[in-house]
Amino acid sequence: MTRTPAVDPTAPIRGARRAQRNRLTEQNSATPAATRRAARAAARDAARAVTPRVTVRSAFAIAVVVSLAGTVALPAVAYPGTEGTTTAAQPAVPGTATDAATSAAAAADTRETQSLVVASAADGVALDRASYAATTPEELASIEQAKAEAERARLAAAITNGQLSSISSALPIVGAGGVTRPLPYFNNFGTPYAGHKGVDYMVAAGTPIYAIADGIVIESSESGPGWGVYVRVAHNINGTSVTTLYAHMTYGTRTVQVGDRVTAGQVIGQVGATGRAFGTHLHLEVQVNNSYVNGESWLVANGL
């Protein structure tokens, strides 16, 4: 019996592959050396073009890894007594010995950095209004007003009791040029008569009356004997005691009271015709060392 040889089904495929390899081998052997070198150079250039992308990806991956490591890293904690050393803090698990030790260390560190000192006992010293200063303009003005009123009351009491010598030290000393006229203007002088101790300046009602120099008010009244509404002021003119009296003012126009300090040119009232007066005018009396002098002559002697 004649056997039929077995047929290999893959033989055609293997044959085709051998034929293709043979053709490639023939082509390569026929390709010039320069062409092969150019092919290898093109392959290297292609590899270099791919390398930067690979490098960027690698750098990005490294950065992500570093950032993740930073988020999970625990800071080093130096507890009191361990200066100069650095110990990595371990996560404290609630309810464990590590948790208790960490809490105690944190509390000790807080006590080291934050402290409150409390006096053992208060001294019980009572505060006095005079022991601290005012802080607002209103308080300062109130204090100054209170001082002025107290001084005025003291001077008024001394004046009322006839103790004029006790206020001499309080009188401001008026030097040269410290005297002014009692009126902004006047029309003419009144006619003198026997027993008349002052100078009459004829002027319209309501004209302002000025203090002739710095001084202290020693009399102020709405009903003087014959003077009507009047004010008297004490002065120290170059060391000399001088008093001036302003009479026949209009009712309700006085601006000063006994004990008030006045300055030269300060308005103390307005011209009127109260008391024994004939027509509106200012009756001015001047006394130097308790002696009456002619008021106008005295003003002229002082350069007015």
Automatic annotation (TrEMBL):
Looking at the record's lineage, which domain of life comes first?
Bacteria
Q: Give the residue ranges for region: Disordered.
A: 1-35
In what residue span(s) does the M23ase beta-sheet core domain sit? 195-294
The protein's matches in PANTHER family, at most eight in alphabetical order, are given as: MUREIN HYDROLASE ACTIVATOR ENVC, PEPTIDASE-RELATED
Annotated protein name in UniProt = M23 family metallopeptidase
